[in-house]
Amino acid sequence: MKQFLLITLLSLILSGCLINAQEPTINPIELQEISIQATGIYLTQAANATAITAPPTTDTPQAEGITPFFRDDFDTELQPGWIWVNEDKKNWNLSTRPGTLMINIQGGYVSLGNAANLLLRSAPEGDFMIETAVSALPEDNNQFAGLILYESDKNYIQMGNSFCSPVNGCTGQGIYIDTYRDGGLMLPRIVNKANLAYAAFRVIRHGSVYSFYMSSDGKLWYLVHQTQIALNVFRVGLVTGQNVDDLIPSAYYDYFIIEKVK
């Protein structure tokens, strides 16, 4: 019996080591650093219907407060100014589904410097908004597709559709907003439970305040999180990765927008 318990204990220790070797460090968050005001929205999507149990936010900026800055509709070629990080040409294209940018959800983390096909461009000065819409349904651990606000590989925020096994604040499928500081994932994780094959994401920066919105149809927008954090956002763009499974699903981005906010 003692020998069995010893073997079991060693197996658990080794398993933990393997997991930690593949994933970034998770750091506890200090309440003084980030102030969170989440709305607690719960989203579900059935085969033929979408039910949202919270009203649309009244904080969505109006058109008169937004100045056009950049837009890419992913037609036959990318607009000038994009920068690929760790480009893998075999795993992205504009032809599989014309009018969309297809990026396969491969392995790798931005914080570890090994995220494939990270797509970035320069962020504007001052206050701005970024937005995209993506068709993807992550179904295995850590698969992610969405937006990124990037200072460096160690400091950034990402918002997107993801699947994360129920540990460290994960709840399976959902809309995840992950903040990385000094290479570590900050806790608590911001999660809105969802099962959406299509979702639009919008992030608005006002000084050091970041507001995160999502929509299931690109028309009604919901404020899902707001945070105040010191982050020098040099670049913005699309992040697709963190897949730890052999199966490689695809994400299809409809567009990417940057707009200056008054």
User: Topology as H/E string?
Assistant: HEEEEEEEEEEEEEEEEEEE
The portion of residues forming beta strands comes to 35-45%
| Structural class designation | mainly beta
Give the CA-CA distance, first to last residue.
69 Å
- Helix segment tally: 1
Q: Kindly state the mean pLDDT as a whole number?
A: 80
Total number of domains: 1
CATH level 1 class label = Mainly Beta
Q: How many DSSP E strands? A: 19
Q: Outline, from the CA principal axes?
A: globular
User: Radius of gyration, rounded?
Assistant: 19 Å
CATH architecture: Sandwich
In this structure, how is the largest beta sheet organized? 9 strands, mixed
Q: What is the CATH topology? A: Jelly Rolls
List unreliable stretches of 5+ residues. Answer: 4-21, 26-63
Helical amount among residues, as a percent range? under 10%
Architecture overview:
With 262 residues, the chain is mainly β. It has a single domain (2-261), classed as Jelly Rolls (Sandwich), CATH 2.60.120. 8% of the residues lie in helices and 44% in strands. The protein is built from one helix and 19 strands. It has one helix at residues 2-22; strands at 26-28, 43-45, 50-52, 66-72, 83-85, 92-93, 101-104, 118-122, 128-135, 144-150, 156-164, 172-181, 184-187, 190-193, 198-206, 209-215, 222-228, 235-241, 250-261. Strands 1, 5, 8, 10, 11, 12, 13, 14 and 18 form a nine-stranded mixed sheet that branches. Strand 6 and strand 7 (101-104) form a beta hairpin. The N and C termini lie far apart (69 Å).
Summarize the structure.
With 262 residues, the chain is mainly beta.
